[in-house]
Description:
Blueprint: E1 2-13, E2 24-40, E3 46-50, E4 55-58, H1 67-78, E5 87-93, H2 103-118, H3 125-140, H4 146-153, E6 157-159, E7 166-167, E8 174-180, H5 187-200, H6 202-224, H7 232-244, H8 250-261, E9 266-270, E10 277-282, H9 287-296, E11 301-307
Parallel strand pairs: 3-5
Antiparallel strand pairs: 1-2, 2-5, 2-6, 3-4, 6-7, 8-10, 8-11, 9-10
Amino acid sequence: MTSASAPGKIILFGEHAVVYGRPALAVPVTQVHADVEVLDSSKNGIWINAPDVGLHAELKSLPSDHPLAAVINNFLFAFGVAPFPVLDIEISSTIPVASGLGSGAAVSVALIRALSSHLDYLMTNEQVNALAYEIEKIHHGTPSGIDNTVITYAKPVFFVKGQPIETFRVGKPFTIVIGNTGISAPTKEAVGDVHALWEADKARWEKVFDKIGEIAEKAKERIGNGEWELIGDLMIQNHALLQEMTVSSPELDRLVSAALKAGALGAKMSGGGRGGNMIALVRPETAEAVSRLLKEASAKNTIITSIHP
Ligand code: PMV
């Protein structure tokens, strides 16, 4: 038996604008993870068991654009694996689905790594990332590639679409509370709606994307200098621009306001939006209180995570 695990992720700054070439900052969240076990099987075929999503099926019975089938088929094709191995694959995940924490990319990365070590086809991070990116296209349509990148490398990433991976320096650790609205919202739709806005008035939205890119650049510098208290205002500015882009929601706005009222230094939605998660920057000693107040403001659950050098 071989197992592999991959973390969740949050986007600190720059979602949506990243699709249009602006930089974004993302970090792994190890409190949640996708886990995959691959075992040699006594049955014929490749059996996939993912009880969290009610899936128990043989590979060939799944449509070719099913993300799990696509991971396995692309892997077998890339390495010319023949004859087809006989396998049982167990998939589980504690990452909430469609909520901006990278659940799809984490399952892909864990599955690729478990297959590669079980079948003895060693892969570089670059290869894992490239394969996971292909699957993100099924999940998201036109993904920037930020999710698969931060999850593959499991490090803070300063991401610019199409450019080589760049990690960023964390001068001093800082604490983030993640609040889940409990509303699952497909990223594809929010990305499509932003695209329609952009098509209708490119000059206006390019300016908005520029502002977000500048915020991400400033945040990278401040985090690198250990001036993490100073990124709170940048989060508030980034959230306002995401609201303008129509990708926030009343529930996300309510949690952002609740976090600020509870003493967070900054807060914003994170990821595709319309539901999913928001993040709040807190002093470590106030993390529990902010988390409690988020739940009182109807967060379904919260995660306290710290970002380390
Ligand atoms: O997977 P999510 O919901 O965290 O969204 C990814 C971030 C977007 O910028 C909205 C889309 C993308 O592909 O970068």
